[in-house]
Sequence to fold (330 residues):
Amino acid sequence: MPLDASLLPSILLVDDDLTVIQVLSKCLSGLGRLRFATDGEAALRLAREDPPDLLLLDAEMPGMSGFEVWEAMRAEPSLQDVPVIFVTSHSEEGMEEKGLALGAADFIAKPVRPAIVAARVRTQLRLKLAIDRLRRMATTDALTQCANRRVLGERLADEWSRAVRRMRPLSILMLDVDHFKMFNDVYGHLRGDEALIAVAAALRQSAIRPGDLVARYGGEEFALILPDTQQDGAMVVAAAVHEKLEKLQIEHRASERGWLSVSIGIASFDDQSLGRERAATLLQSDESPPAGMSVERLLAIADGALYAAKQAGRARSSFTRIDLPVRDPQ
Fold:
């Protein structure tokens, strides 16, 4: 059976000389999915559409040079970790020093030697694979493949700062699997792990925008960050989670419902949190709008809503609003 092309690493070749691209393509045949660009602007467009695993970049091109392309990529979070091998017809030490100083992974002189190019590309792809694996281990929950608690805290801090600074809505969902200890007692921990994986999948299917984040908070608790989402939108996501789990009908004899359910606490920061007059005052002020909240406090607000959902009978959602703290008068 042929290997799925989507599983191969992506290599972007950039050179204004089509002959060089043809030579490089022949050298790297079978090592990855190859894409091509003959100028800097096209290279940036392709990289933004689908970040490559490795970039082979002509250092000297008319218009936008390879060095300028690389500096532009390093300024973008989604592209700054892409390794680059500079390819140039110059062999001066100054040229190579400039490339390495910019963070280049390697440097190849023209005319290229096919065996050397292939060997160096293999080396960089192996390193990229290893780094990606370590990065996933550091940021991903091993069981559910959701973001871990560390990533949750970092993203929530960033999204809260952005929401307050730009006066944009933000919603946080805290979820807890109902009677999960009893589920483990009845069905065993292996089935418990399978249930958590199913819950995580339901969350990912419900929070589908690129900016949404699903994270495992700990044990049987999960959290969702929904940027640019007011109460109504957060309630829709919560309803979708409840609906998907009800359709799954994961047996839970120790639950009053007979199937696995979750309770959800929803906390939203939106225009109603401020009021028009207060929002206008903050926006006209020379000072940045006061954040006034820690990540722990934001999660505690959502957790309070979760507690209310449990107290109301579980398998439901409860809502609370996040209000900016009032400044003490000076």
